[in-house]
Amino acid sequence: MEGFGNMDRKLIGVDLGGTTTKFAILTENGDIQQKWSIETTILDEGAHIVPNIIDSINHHIDLYKMDRSQFVGIGMGTPGTVDLEKGTVIGAYNLNWKTLQPVKKQIEEGTGIKFTLDNDANVAALGERWKGAGENGNDVVFVTLGTGVGGGIIADGHLLHGTAGAAGEIGHVTVEPNGYMCTCGKKGCLEQYASATGVVHVARDMAEEFSGSSKLKQLLDNGEEISSKITFDLAKEGDTLAKSVVDRVSYYLGLALANVGNTMNPSFIIIGGGVSAAGDFLLKQVESYFKQFTFPTVRNTTILKLAVLGNDAGVIGAASLAQRFI
Amino acid sequence: MEGFGNMDRKLIGVDLGGTTTKFAILTENGDIQQKWSIETTILDEGAHIVPNIIDSINHHIDLYKMDRSQFVGIGMGTPGTVDLEKGTVIGAYNLNWKTLQPVKKQIEEGTGIKFTLDNDANVAALGERWKGAGENGNDVVFVTLGTGVGGGIIADGHLLHGTAGAAGEIGHVTVEPNGYMCTCGKKGCLEQYASATGVVHVARDMAEEFSGSSKLKQLLDNGEEISSKITFDLAKEGDTLAKSVVDRVSYYLGLALANVGNTMNPSFIIIGGGVSAAGDFLLKQVESYFKQFTFPTVRNTTILKLAVLGNDAGVIGAASLAQRFI
């Protein structure tokens, strides 16, 4: 019975980031059995990255006394622009990868295991969809609020890439037609309001026109560094200015996600990334605007949720990519 | 050789509307071989609709001396809320269908041919995607500007429905957070600005604050009925107010479609429906805002186009639904 032989088959998920590379060995059901991480060495134009990944995988397979034939495949999430067919990456500047990297070829040769990859935001979306807040649904949208704002979309069970790989770029939805200039060259992108630096930008601007009593205002006036976290913490404590900042950020997030909802009617829109550490305090306020800006069917059937997998979303989603080899 | 036997297989497409029901017999490649239409009789709570469809199909199959076994299936686009699994329709008010209609069961029994259906906007999207401006692409969005604003989305080759069938409701994207009240109960829906009645609404409001010389202003001041068509025609002739109205409408359409582009990066976003009869004059202005509100990858790879199939989009898309029976 082939079914029995398959019971022990495993997936490997790799989450390649600018500072650390995370690894996990998972069952075919997506349960993490082993996980570890290594520092990402970006010296020499990132030439050590792939060899280090290969060594680390081989080392751990031997360490756990596993057999290469047990592994269905390796999936990886990476920054940069990915060619899904060829298994290459280009333009991952935080890895110093400026030229085309034949990642699939190198890792398959170095490990003897099939390999596939996608970009990091898509992979995190797949992870949260499969084993996290997405409840393995067919229509799930994931947005990550970190240094930037990224996202990934699963629609009718398929991860969307669009015609040029830009599907899911929710960070560049225009929420304020004459708003802040974005690094992408256009104005009013969600990323400029709802990323960690976006929240601080909103806080600085609102502080200039604020005249009441506020700890956040004091910090800014004293030239102290503020952060998205400080802003949310002060808002939770009732600071008037900080509350207004969170309200503004929630308005833009609520508007952008409402229109994603109005367009696609997913079962869940999941909010992850560092800024989402503000938790239910943020979620409730975003939800209020989301309900204001969605029409009834979507308001009643598309649910906003916080991500639940944290750092594991990447390795789990990456591993799910390898399921295509089953 | 089974391949030869299949060469003569046909599809039937039905486009059920509030005033006429259109029919076509198509090849498996989507070429229309015969088409006809009947009046839609909505008397007696729409009880005659399905029997009339059955009679018309049977009559034409006999008329063309065709054999039921030639037909792969019948697909239909319908107003109202569709249950895809059960093949039922409810709440199609322009058909007087207030209670659940077991359309699939009735038509399969009445014709002896397999039947499937979807809502009319989705079916038109499938038609334009397959044989029209969509060039049979995997990622195509269709928006129809008529009495209302509807839409349909094909993503990664799949027609999207979302968790409650509301995917593609681009008419309810919020384009003006404190804008016109919509029939859906929320403010600022695209439909309130870019439908035929929306254009007139914008014209009336802008006329109130307009003080220059304008034929459109004169018509309104004289209490004459104006239409979306009159507004566009006057704008083409250089009427100052009418030009401003078209600019405002194009701005909202450009913003909404840009954000659909930023989210999904389709190869084509196709604009159809009565208002799109304004043609390139409208398209160019929408495109200008679309480019302003999209980030570079989408700006360079997602193309706005006018629909090309006109009234045939419905029967062609409906027929494509029946391909699932192949």
Automatic annotation (TrEMBL), chains A, B:
Gene3D superfamilies reported in the protein's UniProt record: 3.30.420.40
Keyword Transferase applies: yes
GO MF assignments: ATP binding; glucokinase activity
E.C. no: 2.7.1.2
A Pfam entry, by short name: ROK
PROSITE patterns found in the cross-reference section: ROK
Name of the featured protein: Glucokinase
